[in-house]
Automatic annotation (TrEMBL), chain A:
It comes from Pedionomus torquatus. One of its GO terms (biological process) is dolichol-linked oligosaccharide biosynthetic process. This is UDP-N-acetylglucosamine transferase subunit ALG13. The keyword Transferase applies. It is found in: Endoplasmic reticulum.
UniProtKB/TrEMBL annotation, chain B:
Forms with ALG13 the active heterodimeric UDP-N-acetylglucosamine transferase complex. This is UDP-N-acetylglucosamine transferase subunit ALG14. The gene is Alg14. One of its GO terms (cellular component) is UDP-N-acetylglucosamine transferase complex. Belongs to the ALG14 family.
Length: 104, 169
């Protein structure tokens, strides 16, 4: 398919996700606890869009590769080495904001 | 726009009912945010039935990778809309997270503050996608916001006046 409103259903049923380095795609897959292989196409992406993919890779949450190394990566990767991605904590933001505006 | 809207709605998810009414301002060219916002507010109304919110559109201040000089012109054009809107709403608090749309709104609020009309607290939260560098809106509002929040330690080091709370979306 070309575009869907939401990939949530497809993600739920997947055992492995292979994605480009877009932040939304990466985060969505990680939050659902799916092992993620991020394919980086340096020619296509802005520098800043790679920042998140690189950081996630450094933190051990995703497997990274580029288009030409995808096949060998899929063959040799160790998904068990991936670390789970803890959810963000908007509660911390709420606490901070309450202090800022004076709602204690 | 898109990712920004999703992030900001997550930021709002744990806020108490005291943060009301909520006024959402977004770009006129944005087709998807309205649906996401309405869906969020509808769900919120299940817990807080007296929830109030409004939606306002202003011209998009900058396209992706638009040049500096033309961006100044388009931002000034957006201010023709954001200034009367901000004057009308007189917000106590502005929460923004990086789309070009936030710059004319914040500048309008700063202007109203300088003129003694309304003092608004400006809180900027940089996107989770920004690990090493700030967005253009971020670079500008780092100096003009009251609180500037980053989500990765690298940025806290580079921008010492920022606040680091960890990942909050």
């Amino acid at each position: 398919f070309r575009f869907k409103d939401s990939l949530a259903e497809d993600l739920r049923g997947a055992d492995l996700v292979i994605s480009h380095a877009g932040a939304g795609s990466c985060l969505e897959a990680l939050e659902k606890g799916k092992p993620l292989v991020v394919v980086i196409n340096e020619k296509l992406m802005n520098n800043h869009q790679l920042e998140l993919a690189k950081q996630l890779h450094r933190d051990g949450h995703v497997v990274c590769c580029n288009c030409s190394t995808l096949v060998e990566t899929l063959q040799s990767m160790d998904l068990t080495a991936l670390k789970p991605f803890p959810p963000g904590q908007p509660e911390k933001f709420a606490l901070f904001l309450d202090k800022v505006v004076g709602f204690q | 726009t898109g990712g920004h809207t999703t992030e900001i709605l997550r930021l709002l998810s744990c806020l108490s009912e005291s943060y009301s009414p909520r006024h959402y301002v977004f770009a006129d060219s944005d087709k998807m945010s309205e649906a996401k916002i309405c869906s969020f507010e509808k769900k919120r109304a299940e817990t807080f039935p007296n929830s109030q919110f409004t939606l306002d559109r202003i011209p998009r201040s900058r396209e992706v990778r638009q040049s500096w000089t033309s961006s100044v012109v388009t931002t000034l054009y957006s201010m023709l809309y954001s200034l009367p809107l901000t004057y009308k709403l007189k917000p106590d608090l502005i929460l923004c997270n990086g789309p070009g749309t936030c710059v004319p709104v914040c500048v309008s609020a700063l202007l109203l503050g300088l003129l003694g009309i309304k003092r608004t607290i400006i809180v900027y939260v940089e996107s989770i996608c920004r690990v090493e560098t700030l967005s253009l809106s971020g670079k500008i509002l780092y100096y003009f916001s009251d609180y500037f929040i980053v989500q990765w330690p690298n940025l806290k080091e580079k921008y010492p006046k920022s606040v680091f709370l960890g990942r909050i979306v």
